[in-house]
Amino acid sequence: MAALLPAEWIKNWEKGGKSEFVQLCRALSENKNHDVGFRDIQQALYELAYHVVRGNLKHDQASNVLGDVIEFREDMPSILADVFCILDIETSCLEEKNKRDHFTQLVLACLYLVSDTVLKERLDPETLESLGLIKQSQQFNQKSVKIKTKLFYKQQKFNLLREENEGYAKLIAELGQDLSGNITSDLILENIKSLIGCFNLDPNRVLDIILEVYECRPEYDDFFVPLIESYMYMCEPQTLCHILGFKFKFYQDPSGETPSSLYRVAAVLLQHNLIDLEDLYVHLLPGDNAIIEEHKREIVEAKQIVRKLTMVVLSSEKTEEKEKEKEKEEEKTEKPPDNQKLGLLEALLKIGDWHHAQSIMDQMPPFYSTSHKPIAIALCQLVHVTIEPLYRRVGVPKGAKGSPISSLPNKRAPKQAESFEELRKEVFNMLCYLGPHLSHDPILFAKVVRLGKAFMKEFQSDGSKQEDKEKMETLFSCLLSITDQVLLPSLSLMDCNACMSEELWGMFKTFPYQYRYRLYGQWKNETYNSHPLLVKVKAQTIDRAKYIMKRLTKENVKPSGRQIGKLSHSNPTILFDYILSQIQKYDNLITPVVDSLKYLTSLNYDVLAYCIIEALANPEKERMKHDDTTISSWLQSLASFCGAVFRKYPIELAGLLQYVANQLKAGKSFDLLILKEVVQKMAGIEITEEMTMEQLEAMTGGEQLKAEGGYFGQIRNTKKSSQRLKDALLDHDLALPLCLLMAQQRNGVVFQEGGEKHLKLVGKLYDQCHDTLVQFGGFLASNLSTEDYIKRVPSIDVLCNEFHTPHDAAFFLSRPMYAHHISSKYDELKKAEKGNKQQHKVHKYITSCELVMAPVHEAVISLHLPKVWDDISPQFYATFWSLTMYDLAVPHSSYDREVNKLKVQMKAIDDNQEMPPNKKKKEKERCTALQDKLLEEEKKQLEHVQRVLQRLKLEKDNWLLAKSTKNETITKFLQLCIFPRCIFSAIDAVYCAHFVELVHQQKTPNFSTLLCYDRVFSDIIYTVASCTENEASRYGRFLCCMLETVTRWHSDRVIYEKECGNYPGFLTILRATGFDGGNKADQLDYENFRHVVHKWHYKLTKASVHCLETGEYTHIRNILIVLTKILPWYPKVLNLGQALERRVHKICQEEKEKRPDLYALAMGYSGQLKSRKPFMIPENEFHHKDPPARNAVPATVQNGPGGAGMPTSVTINTVRLEEGTTEETADKLKEKSQGVVKVINKTVNATPKVTTSNGSSASNSKIIKEKDDKEKSGKEKDKEKKDKTPAATPEMKALGKDGKDKPKEERANKEEKAREIKEKTPKSDKEKEKVKKEEKASKEEKSKTVVTIIESKSTAEKEREKEPSRERDLAKEMKSKENAKGGEKVPVAGSLKSPVPRSETSESEREQKRRKVDTHSSPSHSSTVKDNLNELKESSAKHYINHTTPTLSKSKEREVEKKDLDKSRERSREREKKDEKDRKDRKRDHSNSDREVPQDSTKRRKEENGTTGSSKHSKSESPSDSPRLNEKEKEKNKSKSSGKEKGDSIKAEKMEKSSSGSKKESRHDKEKTEKKEKRDSTGGKEEKKHHKSSDKHR
């Protein structure tokens, strides 16, 4: 054979030989002829290798080229191995050792090309050893020999039992034959025995084959089971169990899967007790421990999933990671390892062996087994079969066919249930094992629920025996447990199945709400933690809920609502809990959420109600905001949501109402907010203090008018919702309990709840409680039928005495009952007699009233002490409390307004071109019908009001008995009737004002209208201060209506004469009871009435200013509310308005930063007050002022507003006033506490025609005269003073005019200077004594002239003295009394001063006070109104005295004073004569006033005397008298120049100073002397003016 490898290639290997060789090999391997190619390649490789062995080529070169060539054929390594094998044999024979070495080197170099195993097959063991592929060739040889021997020569042992295969073939043929004929197991058993004997078969193997065949032919249970049973008699008992165990073990490889046929065979054998479960159980995998571990792991995983879902994921990467993790988890769950225990359990359930199945389930964690779907489905199937007969009998709904389920062929299966008792015994247990996994079979779920429904129907129908009842009770509690443990958790796992939810509601609605809510509570708070699956579901639901809620807006309500609906079908508790938590944070979600709930099922609505109550009752949430003054916003949001959702959707209310009742019972009134909202939204009954007068007026009409004009929102479509609310209240008997609890809780808020709470919050809660009571009572009155109402509300005495209901609330609840009663009685009487005359009708009405009200008159007697009924009759009391505005007046204007609105609407409908004709027609018909209804209602009300007024006319004579005094009567009337009712509701406030007017118009005996109004207006401070915010608003309305009446009478003499002129209410002399006939002079004339009205306005101002100056939150807030309400009628007088305006302005400045709510109120009022300014009038237009006064008080108006431009004297003035007002307040409080509201009338009775403590009688004008005279005398004295001491006038003028410029340092230095000067001037004591003597003398003179008159007066004064409340009004009375008796002259201070001469210490205190106040901005003008004159006199006189002491000697001083006194006496006498004449002229008008004239003059003389009393007396005007006078003086000021004021005040104050024993005669001397010269010239001018003006006045 020619060489394939030429020698040149080898020589030039690197240059070309290598590539030539590679090409050769490629060409050979591509040769089509396979065998030729194979041999040629073999040869080529051999030659190459041989060259290496010979040493012509290096082994690494060869190995490299072989590496390139090896890829050309797949079998190249094998060819190469063959070549190595040949060379191995060849080289081993050669003697040249180097060739052998070359060979081994080549093989080693090519080891990477040929595998070890191939070389081990082909090469010699020694070569292998030299190559290092085996350790020792000898061992290798031995091993190969052994293997070959085992493979080729060893024989298998076989059939040691001598069995013959034919026997098994026959056995299988025997068992596999057709068994349908009459072949029995016994027959076959005999054959098997024969085969075993004949063919020597192993009995255990035979048993195994029988089981195998049974596995393959499962339908022949009846054949195989007896066969195996019989066969087992020949074996040991454990054999069968072991054989089965070995079979199960065979499949226990990780990849093995146990066939279901084996499970079935084992299950059947277990069911027939052929094996014991305990014996077989140990053969099954996995072990119980492994199962428990797996269960725990599932729980942990579930919790991790929850944690991941609740985590905040920031980046998109994390979400991707999350998805990957989810996928991994899904993969895990998809491939569970084969669990033989569960397989066996499933087989047991399928054949109906419940007993053994239960045993296996008990060995595992709860719900572990049923969490595997096949088992759950098998168990469901078993339940289906078991309940079939009972379900067919009672559960199938009408009209449904249903597909019947055949029973199991197995006789050992559980017995089918025929009755509810059997259902309990058999099925309920199975269901408990199923737990939440009933969700796999919605049909079974529905069947169970329907059976529950059928049971509840039976349970609720009465008439069964006691034993049956007990059984039923047990069954009912079992049903509740099943619902809790199975039905609700299963619903959570179902995929939004609305039908199931509705089906479940069919059963739930038969449970009382207490049971339902308990179930929801368990479901929400416990069920979700019981199972890993439910834990996941909960987390997913919250996640989804968050997703929806983030995107919910008004615009996408519909799609979001559908998503919410879908989510709520399965997991409503979790969803609503989250939604409610969002609503509590963001109240703007309420509307969209309410709208989006329209896709809920009935069950979901019920769950929502529960969730709301649970959220409300959350103990961890604070019900107050952090400032403790307002209710938390979360509670407000929830309440608002409640109202909206309960109105819009048919949700049961009982639970919520009971919750509110329970909270009230526990003394917590916060939750009334909920009731308030629910009633407002469902019944359309609003409670608002901001009603306009038009709305209020409409509210006094009939139901139709109320609906049309009485509310802010148009009440539409509340019929259904209010009916639902009514039904809930009646069905659960909550109507009256809620009313009573609210009525009792009003006081509870203050006395029990209010201890720790902020006053503002207590007020809010009180208002909320009261408003809700009014609203709720209104709802009951308008929605309950007469029978329902009467049946539920007990009589008034029971309400008050047994239930401790406050009287106002008790009457409020009873009022509709009386109205119902009277109208029904009236209708009866009308039917009985057909008399149609108006008189007949009225007579019948009055009869029916008497019938109904007589028992009420009896009942009310027990409500108050017997003493009360001495003044007012029970009939009057009951009448007042039982009537309403509907009974007193017809709101014609309201009816007209609504009718006109409808006419405008109809016109608009006609003009509307776009509206289709049929709609036009409908709308017009609606408007016409409404119009007719309104007109009909108006007519009906008119007739009713006329009947009521007739009735009142007949009753009125027995109303007021006034056995004590008329004053006492008015007190009782105000105390027991007006005040409690006027703050009850806005309509009641209007009613009270109307009722007072009505009692006046009816000319009721013993009723003093004047006194009544006087008492209402005179002292409002306490009433205002004790109101809550809303009560203040209602009280304001009441005052507004009262003022409206008074203003009407004040406005026109004609109206006054017509409505008041000849009425007993305006008598000024109050005679003994029963005598009301007074002549014309007893009536208060028009002009005096105007004075009285001015006094009332002044009193209101005084009270308002006092409240505004207290700094108390409640006082300021309430008075601002009241003032805002009475704005239409007050202030009318310009200076009072300005006084108020300044004080309110001050409040605005002070409260801006501190209390923003007060600031807002004050700003609001201030703005409205400014807008009323153009309508205010000067005082002289408001009431005619008698003779023009001579005395000028510097009205602060002249000095510019507020404190800025006030003279120092005025500033000091205001301090005193503040002191005074506090004293007055104390006095008034004392008066209240002692219950002496009687005072007024006693004084009136005792001193006829003398101004009563409230100044309401006719002699006002006279007192004004006296005052004027006093002032005149004061002025004349001043003139003298000025002449003697010219320096004084400019000084005072400087005070008056230039007080603005006075440097503040002066005030600061006052006290030191005063002290220095005191030391220098000891003479003041002597002066004081001298003046006292003169006083005595003058007084004695006067007392002689008027002894008789004074005696009569003193008795009256004694009367007054008895009254403890006189303290604040002491000054005037005391002085006149003491002078009259000629007793010791004690300087008497008014309410602003202490009645003892002031010591130095008191002076210095006063100084300090003054200094303090000087640093404040001065209180407003209105505070100075009261005693401007006196204060100015006092302060300016002090300056005057202090200033002049150094310049005058003692003797001169005395002379000056003597002359002053003499001149003043002369002038006062002249003036008295003039006044006498005036009075005589007036006598013609006032025939009864003779008695007073001397008395008045006495008083005036005393006042003009210049003695202790003179300057002080003007001050000491009792608060009831002085206001009017001061008001007038103030008006007079405007016409006087300031110089005159100074003179007057100097004189008066000097007299006061000398008499009061003050040693402070020299304040500010240095400063004043410096400025004296500058002001001399102006002083002169002022004097001239003064003379002129006084002459004019004379």
Number of strands: 0
Q: Tell me the helix content.
A: over 70%
Straight-line N-to-C gap = 176 Å
Q: Low-confidence runs (pLDDT<50, min 5 residues)?
A: 1072-1078, 1187-1328, 1337-1450, 1484-1594
- Form type: elongated
Instruction: Please state roughly what percent of the residues sit in beta strands, choosing from under 5%, 5-15%, 15-25%, 25-35%, 35-45% or over 45%.
Output: under 5%
Structural class: mainly alpha
- What is the number of helical segments per DSSP (H or I, 4+ residues)? 75
Mean pLDDT reading: 75
Largest sheet data: none
* Estimated radius of gyration: 57 Å
Give a verbal description of the structure.
This protein is mainly alpha-helical. The chain has 75 helices and no strands. Helix 19 runs antiparallel to helix 20 (354-362), helix 22 (420-434) packs parallel to helix 24 (466-493) and helix 43 (838-860) packs across helix 44 (874-882). The radius of gyration is 57 Å and the shape is elongated. Mean pLDDT is 75; it is low at 1072-1078, 1187-1328, 1337-1450 and 1484-1594.
Layout of helices and strands, plus pairs?
Blueprint: H1 7-11, H2 13-29, H3 34-54, H4 59-69, H5 76-93, H6 97-109, H7 116-122, H8 125-131, H9 137-152, H10 165-176, H11 185-199, H12 203-216, H13 221-231, H14 237-250, H15 260-271, H16 277-281, H17 288-310, H18 316-334, H19 340-351, H20 354-362, H21 373-395, H22 420-434, H23 442-460, H24 466-493, H25 498-508, H26 513-525, H27 532-551, H28 557-570, H29 572-585, H30 590-596, H31 602-616, H32 633-648, H33 654-665, H34 672-683, H35 693-699, H36 703-710, H37 719-731, H38 735-751, H39 759-783, H40 786-792, H41 796-802, H42 807-832, H43 838-860, H44 874-882, H45 885-888, H46 892-911, H47 917-955, H48 966-982, H49 986-1001, H50 1009-1018, H51 1021-1025, H52 1029-1051, H53 1053-1061, H54 1086-1109, H55 1113-1125, H56 1134-1154, H57 1156-1172, H58 1179-1182, H59 1208-1233, H60 1239-1246, H61 1260-1284, H62 1288-1298, H63 1304-1320, H64 1324-1345, H65 1347-1362, H66 1370-1381, H67 1400-1415, H68 1421-1425, H69 1428-1444, H70 1450-1483, H71 1492-1504, H72 1508-1516, H73 1522-1533, H74 1538-1556, H75 1565-1593
